Amino acid sequence: MAAQSSTSSRSRASSHGRLLLCSHGEKPVLRISGMKENPGRRFWGCVYFEVQQGCNFFRWADPDTEVEHAEVARIRKKLSMMKSRTKAAEWKLKVVAVLGFFGWVGFLCLLLQSWSNATQQCVIPLNLI
Asked: Which candidate in 19, 25, 48, 62 could, as Cys together with 52 as Cys, close a disulfide (CB 3.0–4.6 Å)?
């Protein structure tokens, strides 16, 4: 019955181009793990597993997870470094924006003060006659 389940298939069992055979001399069947530790992970198993005396043939069909874990760890470290650089750049940009804003406000104040001094009427009467 297990050999006919929907989680099994008679796909070509190969690992890096080699034909896999179990101890019975049969091509293993591609199955999907239902265990808590590896749910949904694909593996090659003996054709006679749960039907007759199986030979305990077992091989993961998915890529080596240790290599994937190292790659994921490297990418996460790189992502963390990029996030910290981004935060630093954002902080610098905010500082420059605030300084630029206050610089323009100061410039406008000086410009208005100079304009008001130039247009201000003389309060001292000049009676030359």
From this structure: 48
Domain-located, residue 55: yes
Boundaries of domain holding 39: 18-61
Number of domains present in the structure of the chain:
1
pTM of the entire predicted model: 0.39
> Cα(128)–Cα(120) distance, rounded to whole angstroms?
21
Percent of the chain past pLDDT 70, that is, above it, reads 73
Counted residue by residue, the chain has a size of: 129
How many alpha carbons lie under 13 Å from residue 2 in its C-beta half-sphere? 15
Supply the pLDDT for residue 1. Answer: 38
